[in-house]
Write a structure and sequence with these properties.
Helix content: 55-70%
Oligomer: single chain
Structural class: mainly alpha
CATH superfamily of the largest domain: ATP12 ATPase
Largest sheet: 3 strands, antiparallel
Number of domains: 2
CATH architecture of the largest domain: Orthogonal Bundle
Distance between the termini: 32 Å
Number of strands: 5
Shape: globular
Order of helices and strands: EEEHHHEHEHHHHHH
């Protein structure tokens, strides 16, 4: 699509902040008003519109994509989104360990144990940590605590939290990021301990490295989106 506007601005309205293109409010693909809860989020999306050239490139507008997802779907389906995030808690990456080789087991313990300690302290929960990949039920009280924590987040933050949990395979890492316990680069590195160990032993695959780089950027943007939604 060719660029059809000259000026981009932000305006406050009764339903939040709006991004304006030549004085007209942006709407979602479903024709809903793009009403944003914080000025920071509206300004970030406005900057994406300002950064477009003669041809609009949707791939270069990740904040707009996430906001559209929130307004057209997530806001009316919060329970389903929370349930989807919790499924990563039911099989949280940090609770599945290896015993061989010992070096990898040590890396997992050194990286993941402190995050579980934080989660125990922060949410008053317990975890079942096992060796192997066979499914292990986590205590219902633990999942209930995570549900309560997720329910405190607005729909914009929830959408980005789902992105983070999907990338990392861990609701614990997603919550640690949202609460400022960890920064994006730490979260991504902790989610890639197994892959990085294998790469150090057998060499790095170019295609795998490209995929990892793309995921890291997506996680960074999700973290920025959460920060803007909470400002």
């Amino acid at each position: 699509m060719r660029r059809f506007y000259k000026n981009v601005s932000v305006a406050e309205a009764e339903d939040g902040f709006r991004v304006m293109l030549d004085g007209r409010p942006v709407k979602t693909p479903a024709k809903n008003m793009l009403a944003l809860g914080t000025l920071a989020l509206a300004e970030a999306i406005a900057e994406e519109w300002r950064g477009q050239g003669d041809i609009i490139e949707p791939v270069s507008m990740p904040f707009l994509k996430l906001a559209n997802t929130v307004i057209d779907g997530v806001a009316a389906n919060r329970a389903e989104v929370i349930a989807a995030i919790l499924r990563f808690g039911e099989n949280d990456l940090l609770c599945y360990r290896t015993h061989q080789p010992p070096e990898l087991a040590q890396r997992q313990a050194e990286g993941w144990d402190p995050v579980l300690v934080w989660a125990r302290r922060r949410y008053g929960v317990e975890f079942v940590v096992v060796e192997g990949c066979a499914h292990q039920e986590q205590p219902p009280a633990t999942l209930a605590s995570f549900r309560a924590a997720l329910e405190k987040h607005d729909s914009f933050s929830l959408t980005a939290l789902h992105v983070v949990a999907s990338i990392t395979g861990s609701v614990v890492l997603a919550l640690a990021l949202a609460e400022g316990e960890l920064v994006p680069v730490q979260v991504f590195a902790l989610s890639r301990i197994d892959e990085d160990y294998q790469a150090s032993k057998w060499g790095r695959d170019h295609e795998a490295e490209v995929r990892a780089s793309n995921l890291a950027r997506e996680l960074d943007k999700a973290a920025e989106f959460i920060a803007a939604a909470q400002t």
